């Protein structure tokens, strides 16, 4: 190797080693902050602090002739590491009441996640699952919160068959549909009721920046502690009615999962060489394959329940599929011209969001590309 190149690479190695030392130092400070925040009961994720810090470092970077995006990427990735470190130190427990939290379905994937986070916050958690259902009456007899985390198809039955709960016990569920479970909970329990829909899967490493949708049922004030606990975990909460929730989800979830399923179903029938498709795919296509493929690494029952949760007996599914047919007819009758005309109408409907999504996706694709070797 040319000795000049070798010397420069040595210098890069030294600079990178310094970067490692600095990152280690930052993470150690962040661990200390985590400890202090635990003591003070402050949230894991502090968006205002992050925004201020990023703006400051972007300005520093630009002043030094570096792109602001570079330091922002590094800091955001490092802050993700902060969440991980701070999570292991546990969280302040908002509700000092010593009574236990009962998680019904606590051995399921999402149930386990809530069990872990409640335990990280110092609550006593009683897990109920198929193998110890006989413990349910005793477990709920002095429960602070009963959280139903069973598959969608079983939720209503499990709620209807719950034993009597203490009158001040909060009854909540984490099902991805909200109207029916909420009605079932209100019918079964006369105390505080709240519907929750975590907008994440069980594999998320931390809850920082994750969203939980909340559909109030009865006596919302009695669930305040739970909402505050979520905030300490770094979760962002949005409140809406169960009806609004289910309507929005039929757009967000039913269509997303249906499209992915049909795409995967179609691929499997066409039976191409998947290995080759992956190799030929640039980041955007790879991302698309990932969005589809990841579905099939999860539970078919879950997605069947979500797709079937579509209100009005699959009417959204039917309308969506009819649109494929409409597009086919459009292509057959009017060809390119018809397609472009409809395309422009859709673009108008998206308005400034189209540009915004394009920008956001470019950023995302850069990250996907960076992570490939
Ligand atoms: O300042 C804090 O509260 C931190 O926990 C540190 C830190 C960071 O790594 O800079 C991490 C998480 C917060 O969202 C904000 C900032």
From TrEMBL:
Gene Ontology cellular component annotations, sorted alphabetically: cytoplasm
Ranges where the Chorismate mutase domain occurs: 1-90
Residue span(s) of domain Prephenate/arogenate dehydrogenase: 99-361
GO molecular function terms noted in the UniProt entry: chorismate mutase activity; NAD+ binding; prephenate dehydrogenase (NAD+) activity; prephenate dehydrogenase (NADP+) activity
Gene Ontology biological-process annotations: chorismate metabolic process; tyrosine biosynthetic process
Taxonomy, superkingdom: Bacteria
Pathway the protein takes part in: Metabolic intermediate biosynthesis; prephenate biosynthesis; prephenate from chorismate: step 1/1; Amino-acid biosynthesis; L-tyrosine biosynthesis; (4-hydroxyphenyl)pyruvate from prephenate (NAD(+) route): step 1/1
InterPro entries per record: 6-PGluconate_DH-like_C_sf, Chor_mut/prephenate_DH_T, Chorismate_II_sf, CM_dom_sf, CM_II_prokaryot, CM_T, NAD(P)-bd_dom_sf, PDH_C
Pfam families: CM_2 (PF01817), PDH_C (PF20463), PDH_N (PF02153)
UniProt KW keywords: Amino-acid biosynthesis, Aromatic amino acid biosynthesis, Cytoplasm, Isomerase, NAD, Oxidoreductase, Tyrosine biosynthesis
Subcellular location: Cytoplasm
Listed PANTHER family: PREPHENATE DEHYDROGENASE, PREPHENATE DEHYDROGENASE [NADP(+)]
Protein name: T-protein
Gene: tyrA
